[in-house]
Specification:
There is one protein chain. The protein is an alpha+beta fold. The protein is built from 4 helices and 15 strands. The longest helix is centred in the N-terminal third of the chain and has 31 residues. 35% of the residues are buried.
Length: 282
């Protein structure tokens, strides 16, 4: 305390008491105000309503989003969904649009429309303009198939063939088994019978994994066969939906084929059948 302050206290005791009391009350008021602020920010057990609304918005924005079906990929992919046309909706530029051949048309599909084929001459041809799809290290082909008959025929779901020794494809046998073939006139492997039935859509997948040299077939996302194949095809031939140009006998598909996908990489199929995209569980 300075000399002047001591003189002030000595000469004006009443004012000094008032001054001290005022300072004390001001200190208490400031402490109370600070305590309230601290309590409002850090101690209050209930968050303000505005915080609740903000929290709700944050949770909503973090909710799961629907997974694309068919599965999205990070490699060149074509999709022929048969929604009244044979366009390639895979987003490639240039794409690989299909061409309806010999009476191929449309009918009810697993999702929307489907290619409708008469089993005699009709098929869909898609010229392939993408190098990784003509010279793949790996590939995945997928489709939803609904054959109207398998009696005494072996229809091909899809194929890409320059010759018997340079081709790949998936064929349905009369007993409902699947024959996957690559660079040969014979099946690389045949599944158990009855995996494909007439009168209903079944999702079939042909996958070649170049890192393991495995040719694998799936039905509704479940593996039904596998074979070791040294190399994939290497050709610029069109991709055929519903026919094999080098197959033995009538290989034209009778019935409907929908949701056709061609990816130039490994895309493990989802464990589900054909139909609308599954609704994700929150």
């Amino acid at each position: 305390m300075s000399l002047n302050s001591r003189r002030f206290v000595t000469r004006h005791p009443f004012l000094n008491c008032c001054l001290l009391l005022g300072l004390l009350l001001a200190g208490v008021a400031g402490l109370t105000s600070l305590t309230r602020k601290v309590g409002a920010v850090f101690v209050t057990p209930e968050s303000p309503k505005s915080d609740n609304r903000l929290t709700s918005k944050i949770v909503s924005s973090a909710a799961p989003t629907p997974t694309p079906w068919p599965t999205a990929t990070k490699c060149p992919t074509s999709r022929w969904l048969a929604e009244g046309n044979a366009n390639d909706s895979g987003g490639l530029n240039p794409g690989n649009p299909g061409i309806l051949k010999n009476g191929a048309t449309f009918g009810p599909g697993a999702v929307g429309g489907a290619f409708s084929l008469n089993g005699i001459l009709a098929y869909v041809e898609a010229p392939i303009n993408i190098v990784p799809m003509n010279q793949p290290g790996s590939f995945t082909w997928e489709a939803c198939v609904n054959p109207s008959s398998l009696h005494n025929i072996r229809p091909v779901v899809f194929s890409k063939e320059a010759s018997l020794n340079n081709r790949a494809g998936l064929q349905i046998n009369a007993n409902g088994s699947l024959c996957s073939y690559m660079n040969s006139s014979n099946c690389a492997v045949t599944s158990a019978p009855g995996v494909v039935a007439t009168g209903q859509f079944t999702k079939v997948t042909l996958l070649y994994n170049g890192s393991t040299n495995s040719l694998v077939t799936y039905v509704n996302g479940v593996q039904v066969s596998t074979a070791s194949v040294a190399m994939p095809y290497n050709n610029s031939a069109p991709f055929n939906i519903g026919w094999s140009p080098f197959g033995s006998g009538n290989t034209h598909f009778p019935g409907r084929i929908d949701e056709v996908i061609f990816s130039s990489c490994v895309v493990p199929p989802t464990p589900c059948g054909c139909g609308p995209a599954p609704t994700p569980v929150p």
